[in-house]
Design brief:
Length: 215
C-alpha cells in the first residue's frame, strides 16, 4: 500500500468531505503517519473511517471525528492542551503538532506506555503522558484547550473548570446511538456551548456520571 497516497485520500475524501476546512489541520493530517499509531495487525485499516479497537473496549476515533475535533479547538501553536483519553497516541500527536504542549492522561497504564513509545519514535517530545482516571482527578493547572476523546453520559463540570479564560473544550455527550459533539468556550464571566454534530463515540471508562454532576 502506498501510505502517502492513502493518507492523502483519507484527508481529501473523508476528512475534508465532512466539513473540515482548516488548512492547518488538513496539512498536518496529510503529513502525520496515522499508520504508525494503529495497533499491530490493523495497519491496512489505518486510513479507513472506522473506530479501530485498542483493547480494554477502547477505540481510536475515526479520521472524520478527529478532523472535526481539531478544527473545533482551532489551535494556533501557543496553547497548553489537556487530552483526556490517550488511546493510541495519534490524537496526542495531532494536538502536539498544532500546540505548544500536550498533557495526556489515560486510565490504562499499557495504553499510556504504548503511546509513549509511539510518540517517542515519531520524534514528538512536547507531551507529558500520565496514567490517571479523569472521572476521579485531573492534572493540576488550567488549559487553553481540552480534548475529551471518549464520550460521557453527562458532562463533568470539572472539565470546564480546568479551562483557562478563553479556553475551549471539545466533548461528546449523551447516550448511543445519538450523542452530541459540543464545543464549550470559557469567556471572562460565562460559558458558551455550541452543538457541533451528532455522532456515536465509545465512552470513557466511568464516563457515566451521577445526575448531581450535570452541567
Amino acid at each position: 500500500m502506498n501510505t502517502d497516497y492513502a493518507r492523502l485520500q483519507m484527508v481529501n475524501q473523508q476528512v475534508r468531505g465532512w466539513n473540515v476546512y482548516d488548512e492547518d489541520v488538513l496539512a498536518m493530517l496529510k503529513e502525520l503517519p496515522r499508520e504508525h499509531f494503529v495497533p499491530a495487525g490493523f495497519e491496512s485499516l489505518a486510513f479507513a473511517d472506522l473506530a479501530i479497537p485498542l483493547g480494554h473496549g477502547e477505540h481510536m476515533m475515526t479520521p472524520t471525528i478527529e478532523g472535526r475535533l481539531l478544527q473545533a479547538l482551532g489551535l494556533r501553536g501557543n496553547e497548553n492542551v489537556l487530552e483526556i483519553g490517550t488511546g493510541s497516541g495519534f490524537m496526542t500527536a495531532c494536538l502536539a503538532s498544532l500546540a505548544t504542549h500536550v498533557t495526556s492522561i489515560d486510565i490504562h497504564d499499557d495504553l499510556v506506555e504504548r503511546a509513549s513509545r509511539k510518540l517517542e519514535s515519531a520524534g514528538i517530545d512536547n507531551v507529558t503522558l500520565s496514567p490517571m482516571d479523569a472521572t476521579r482527578s485531573l492534572p493540576d493547572g488550567s488549559f487553553d484547550a481540552i480534548a475529551v476523546t471518549g464520550s460521557v453520559q453527562t458532562l463533568d463540570p470539572r472539565f470546564v473548570e480546568a479551562l483557562a479564560p478563553r479556553g475551549k473544550l471539545f466533548v461528546v455527550v449523551g447516550d448511543a446511538p445519538a450523542m452530541e459533539a459540543r464545543l464549550i468556550e470559557r469567556t471572562d464571566d460565562d460559558v458558551d456551548t455550541t452543538g457541533l454534530f451528532e455522532t456515536d463515540l465509545a465512552p470513557l471508562i466511568h464516563g457515566a456520571l451521577p445526575p448531581q454532576f450535570a452541567f
